[in-house]
Design a protein that fits this description.
alpha/beta; 2 domains; Rossmann fold; 18% strand
Length: 278
């Protein structure tokens, strides 16, 4: 079988940024994206830096809130309250993960749902459950967009998601099984008894657990579409959840880096435009 088609998230994200820039240029008022970064985690800082670069490329104003690792929950909630009422901020994100002493659920719930650019407020997640529109979390939306731009349909397909996190796995399962996308979805996780038996029958496998090279070639069938979402920082740099050998049996492969990551940032811009009140 020929080597898998690489699903190029860098190229697709560039096209989306161009589309966003054209829309921004037609607005009376420039949208504003704010990010809240707590601490000095290198991955989080890298992601936030990338988001602000994207904003500058497409004509979106950006606001950076950077707080120390030791910030109190009260101080963090106060910053969120300020952004909720700021006329310069069309939408914002709180970069995850947060330090252990911060209640992440309380922080996400404090974001005004109408400014929730990440789509992780309970109201927006509830709208996803009920298929009521609302803001869709960026990474699940990025996966669907990347597949769609490569003309890969999920309708009727068996999809296995490895990982049940609240930012990817769980909302992704809701999105992929919704009407209009129509996949048959299975989530496997650390307590699943035989992960290979699920992944081996899947038409599409999406790995989002954060364990280096977890998914190997003998765990998938020939012709699978493999989407790498997880990241692990190693001495050799960032590596994904999918072993590179999977490319030899897959029909299409979204690598890490260069696949879903750039698309996730592009979807943040898309979400912001939807939230912006001109």
């Amino acid at each position: 079988m020929a080597q898998a088609k690489v699903l190029d998230g860098v190229a697709a994200a560039k096209a989306i940024r161009q589309e966003v820039a054209l829309k921004v240029a037609k607005l009376k008022n420039r949208p504003g994206l704010a990010t809240v970064l707590v601490g000095e985690d290198p991955s989080s800082r890298s992601y936030v830096d990338g988001k602000h670069r994207d904003c500058s490329q497409v004509g979106i104003n950006s606001i950076r809130i950077e707080l120390p690792q030791t910030v109190s929950q009260t101080e963090l909630l106060s910053e969120i309250d300020n952004l909720n009422s700021s006329k310069d901020c069309s939408g914002f994100i709180v970069q995850l993960p947060l330090p252990a002493h911060i209640d992440t659920n309380k922080v996400l719930s404090a974001i005004n749902p109408d400014k929730d650019a990440d789509g992780l407020h309970p109201i927006n997640l509830g709208k996803l459950v009920l298929s009521q529109g609302g803001v869709i979390p960026c990474t699940p939306k990025a996966i669907v967009e990347l597949l769609g731009r490569n003309e890969i349909s999920l309708s009727g397909k068996e999809v296995v998601i490895i990982g049940r996190g609240t930012t990817v796995g769980r909302p992704l399962s809701l999105l992929l099984s919704s009407k209009g996308i129509d996949a048959t979805v299975t989530i496997v996780h650390s307590k699943s008894s035989d992960i290979k038996s699920h992944t081996k029958r899947a038409d599409v496998v999406i790995a989002a657990l954060g364990k280096a090279h977890f998914l190997t070639a003998n765990m998938v069938k020939e012709g699978v579409v493999a989407i790498d979402v997880g990241t692990t920082r190693t001495s050799e740099g960032l590596v994904g959840d999918i072993d590179p050998e999977v490319m030899k049996v897959a029909s299409a492969f979204a690598p890490m880096p260069g696949g879903v990551g750039p698309m996730t940032r592009a979807m943040l811009l898309s979400n912001l435009l939807a939230l912006h009140k001109d």
